[in-house]
Structure formats: C-alpha cells, structure tokens
Design a protein that fits this description.
This protein is of the alpha+beta class. The protein folds into 3 domains: 84 residues, Arc Repressor Mutant, subunit A, CATH 1.10.10; 78 residues, His-Me finger endonucleases (His-Me finger endonuclease fold); 35 residues, no CATH class. 43% of the residues lie in helices and 11% in strands. The strands form 2 sheets. It has a 3-stranded antiparallel beta sheet with strand order 1-3-2. A hairpin with a 5-residue loop joins strand 2 and strand 3. Helix 10 crosses helix 11. It is globular, with a radius of gyration of 21 Å.
C-alpha cells in the first residue's frame, strides 16, 4: 500500500458516492484499478462511469494501459496530481429538484434536446450543457434552465463517450469550447468534440413512422444506406432552390 498524504486521505473519507468510494479505496490499497477489476470484481458494466464519479468528486485520475488476465490491452486508472484536488467538489453533484426538471421538460415540450424524441419525464435525465467535469456546479446552480438540458438515456451515453474522448475534456477544460460544441448547444454549434463536422438526429414517432418505413424501402431499392438516402434527398431539394 502506497503512503498517501493525510490531508488527501481525510478528503477521500468524506466522499460518499458508492462508485467513487469503491474506485478510491481500491486504488489506495492496490495503487490502481483496471476496467477488468470494475467489471468482474465490482459488477460495473460501464467502468468509465465509475471513474468519472471520482473525477467529479474533485479527485484527479489519470488513465494508462495495462494487460488483462488473458493478455489483452485494457485501461487502468490511478490518482493524478493530488495537489490539484478540488475540495469543493467532494460532495459530488448537487441534486436537481423535481420542479427544476419539470421546468426543463416543459421548456422543450418533453423532447430530448439531442435526438428530439418525445419521452415521458421519467425517461429523461437532466444534463449540464457544459460537462460537470469542466464547470462543476457554480453559485447559479439550478437557477438558469438555459445551462441545462434533458437527454434520453441513449443520447446521454453518447454525449458522455464523446466528451470523455475530447481533447478539451482531458486537457484544456475551456467552457467556451464546450458552449460551441454540438453536445453543449445542439441548436447552434460549430464543432463536435473539436471536429469540424455537422450532425442531424431525426426521430420518427406516431404517424411519422409510416414515412420512415417508406424511406427505408426506397433506400433498400437503391442499395444505399438510409442516412445516405435521406441526405441525398435533402441535397437534391436544396439544389433545386439555389
């Protein structure tokens, strides 16, 4: 067991988040924790989420590569520069009130802010436009609905994966970069995780499904993928109106 500063150990003891606590205690005891440990020993199917809880609690974590029991290259995690601990985040994320979530739900008429699918409120999750990892909860927490959005579980996972692999997330942590990203402002952005690309998510519900099925059949006839077929139709339409 490595000897850690007493100040750090006192801070670590104050963290109550279950997943974060497991990761921290394992690293204190063994020096690091692997994705294999998290999956097989602790039952977490999405190891990065557990590690992210530690970062959100203000504890620096760095990633490196190691070998699994069967020789495969896997990710492992250890503490980073402990001088960069953020004690103000030890309590983790603050909880959103039911009233605040309802205001977000009504603001976008029950739609996911990314895919625009309509869901019951219980299936949507409150998300920081600027990832908590970068901005934390400031003094204006839960006061401005424009700083948050509701996402379906699928879009929330997609955003998490994309953000966690972004250079800004891992190094710069520039809030303004996040606010110009698709994942922060899907209604007005100029990049997606720093890549100069554009994205359009379409969801077909209710009576619209029949049109989706019609498009799918036409795409199959032309032996083209459905996204490429829809894109070709949009391009032809715009070319006619140039």
């Amino acid at each position: 067991m490595k000897n850690y500063p007493k100040e750090f150990l006192k801070i670590a003891e104050k963290i109550t988040n279950k997943r974060a606590k497991i990761v921290i205690d394992h690293i204190i005891k063994h020096g690091f924790i692997t994705t294999e440990d998290l999956e097989k020993n602790y039952g977490y199917s999405h190891p990065p989420r557990a590690v992210r809880d530690v970062r959100e609690a203000g504890i620096p974590i760095e990633t490196f590569k190691t070998k699994s029991a069967d020789g495969k290259t896997i990710a492992a995690y250890r503490f980073g520069d402990l001088s960069k601990i953020q004690p103000s985040r030890v309590g983790g994320r603050q909880k959103f009130s039911k009233e605040f979530k309802k205001s977000l739900y009504n603001a976008n008429n029950g739609h996911c802010y990314i895919c625009n699918g309509r869901f019951e409120e219980r299936y949507l999750q409150v998300d920081h436009r600027v990832p908590y990892e970068i901005s934390g909860d400031d003094k204006n927490f839960q006061q401005n609905v424009n700083d948050y959005m509701l996402l379906c579980a699928s879009c929330n996972r997609a955003k998490s994966w994309s953000c966690e692999h972004c250079e800004n997330w891992n190094n710069s942590k520039d809030i303004e970069i996040c606010l110009k990203c698709y994942w922060g402002r899907p209604e007005n952005y100029d990049h997606i995780s720093l890549d100069k690309i554009r994205r359009l998510d379409l969801t077909w519900q209710g009576n619209e499904v029949k049109f989706f099925e019609a498009l799918k059949k036409e795409a199959e006839k032309g032996k083209i993928t459905l996204p490429d077929y829809v894109k070709s139709l949009l391009i032809k339409h715009l070319e006619k109106h140039e």
